[in-house]
Amino acid sequence: MEQIEHRTIYEAIGGYKTMNNIVHAFYTRVNDHPDLKPIFPDDLTETIRRQMLFLTQFFGGPRLYEEERGHPMLRRRHLPFPITPTRRDAWLTCMAAALEEAEIKEPYRTAMMERLTLTANHMMNTPE
């Protein structure tokens, strides 16, 4: 029988340090992406902080986002921003590259992208 070493993806990938690497690698790409940059603020400091809280919780770490901001209500919080299929795909491309840069190993990389893809699909709110 295989021993389970980690209870969550967050623990398995290295916790805070690795999640921080992912989030910063992701926003470096977002800031340079022509489809994404228009819907993000010029100063990404608070956006990065909130994404760090959210992804930590989303992947099984401490429930920091919920403690600070309540239920994520992602779709509702993102309704003011036109999220098209093109922007969804760009977001996922940036996240996949960030996971690669952060050296997330399998099976965690695939598991993370599967969850993020479901969420990104749910966030679309505007046709092309």
UniProtKB/TrEMBL annotation:
<dbReference type="InterPro" id="IPR019795">
    <property type="entry name" value="Globin_bac-like_CS"/>
</dbReference>
<dbReference type="InterPro" id="IPR012292">
    <property type="entry name" value="Globin/Proto"/>
</dbReference>
<dbReference type="InterPro" id="IPR044203">
    <property type="entry name" value="GlbO/GLB3-like"/>
</dbReference>
<keyword id="KW-0479">Metal-binding</keyword>
<dbReference type="InterPro" id="IPR009050">
    <property type="entry name" value="Globin-like_sf"/>
</dbReference>
<keyword id="KW-0408">Iron</keyword>
<keyword id="KW-0813">Transport</keyword>
<comment type="similarity">
    <text>Belongs to the truncated hemoglobin family. Group II subfamily.</text>
</comment>
<protein>
    <recommendedName>
        <fullName>Globin</fullName>
    </recommendedName>
</protein>
<dbReference type="Pfam" id="PF01152">
    <property type="entry name" value="Bac_globin"/>
</dbReference>
<dbReference type="InterPro" id="IPR001486">
    <property type="entry name" value="Hemoglobin_trunc"/>
</dbReference>
<keyword id="KW-0349">Heme</keyword>
